[in-house]
Each structure stands twice: as structure tokens, then as C-alpha cells.
Amino acid sequence: MSKKIVDLPISSKSLRDLNAGDQVLLTGHLYTARDAAHKRMIESLEQGDELPFNIKGETIFYVGPTPAKPGQVIGSAGPTTSYRMDPYTSKLLDLGLKGMIGKGYRSQEVIDSIAKNQAIYFSAIGGTAALISKSIKAMRSIAYEDLGPEGIYRLEVENFPAIVVVDARGNVLEAFKQK
Is residue 103 part of a domain? Predict the structure, then answer.
């Protein structure tokens, strides 16, 4: 099966053209955030503050990268279990988030919100953290430095391998349907 090339930030046309099960290579920029950063973002919104980056049209990679070795941009960068972000995801999708990358299942509420907001959920294969890190070309801290690797970073990626798990119509890849 050939892989589809997808530029980030992801366009509406790309979202419409992707289907559950498609293998993709992502190129462009994305942001990292795990549960601690998600919690802090929602708390900021509840306090009337702005998010540390403009979330409209963006993609978040659920990852807490390990420290880079000398001469590297980033250490291992394996995906985090996505359902840990589910309590925060619908709010971020309503604000314009268009893509998420993680591993594992999503709740029905999040799947419905993905479809409602014409967004997408990709899975990066767990266990390939060293391989994924090779597709990350640049990294800079954006917010929440006190969280260490769980802070928010902006990554520049090239040919980042992923699979569409939930497409913009709410279709779920069979292997990821909860039984």
C-alpha cells in the first residue's frame, strides 16, 4: 500500500481525502502535548487566558520526548496513549484543532467530536520511537517548560509515518474499534 503525503498544517481538502486505514507521511510542523499540558491549557481557557499557540488548523502529537543525545534534535519520540487526553480533546477540537497523533483507542465522545469538527486522529506505531525521532528535523519549546518533556514543543517534521485511525467523517479503523 502506498503512503499518502500530507502537509501540515493539514488542509480541508487533505482531511476530506483521507480515510480510516490510510498510511500517511506527515511533513510540516506540529505541536507536542501530553495530559499535563492539556490540563493546563484547559485551565488557562477556563481562566479566560489564551492558549500558548494558535490551535486553529494545527496538529498535536501526544509525546513526551526523551532528551536529545549530542548532535541530535530530539531523543526517542514515541506516542503516548491517547485516551488520557480524551477529557480535554472535544474542547480543543471546538476551538479549531484539526489533527491528533497518538496511540490507542478514543472515546465515542471524541470520535463524534472529530466528525463534528471535521478533524482527524492519526496513530503512530508504538515501539518505533527511535525511528519517529529521525523524521523530526527541529524542535523548540513553546510553553510549560516546568513540565520538562511534557511541556509544549513545536516540531518540524519530514515524512513522519502515521496511520489514519479516525477520519473526518468519524469512520474508525476496524482494529481500533472498541468491542
Answer: yes
d(CA 88, CA 38) in angstroms, rounded, equals 6
Q: What is the pLDDT of residue 106?
A: 96
For residue 24, the SS3 value is strand
Within a domain: 170: no
User: What is the total count of domains within the chain?
Assistant: 1
Q: pLDDT tens-digit profile of 97-112? A: 999 999 999 999 999 9
- For residue 62, what are the domain limits? 4-149+160-165
> pLDDT (tens digit, 9 = 90+) per residue, 2-20?
799 999 999 999 999 999 9
pTM tops 0.85: yes
Assigned domain for 17 exists: yes
Q: Which residues are catalytic?
A: 38
Q: Is residue 178 part of a domain?
A: no
Which amino acid, one-letter code, is at 59?
A: T
CATH code, 58: 3.20.130.10
- Write the CB contacts of 165 (distance below 8 Å, at least 6 apart in sequence): 20, 106, 121, 122, 123, 172, 173, 176
Q: Return the half-sphere exposure (C-beta side, CA atoms, 13 A cut-off) of residue 48.
A: 0
Q: At what angle do helices 35-46 and 86-94 cross, to 10 degrees?
A: 50
Distances (CA, A) of 88 to 13, 67, 116: 26, 26, 16
Q: Which residue, 110, 77, 78, 71, is CA-closest to 94? A: 110
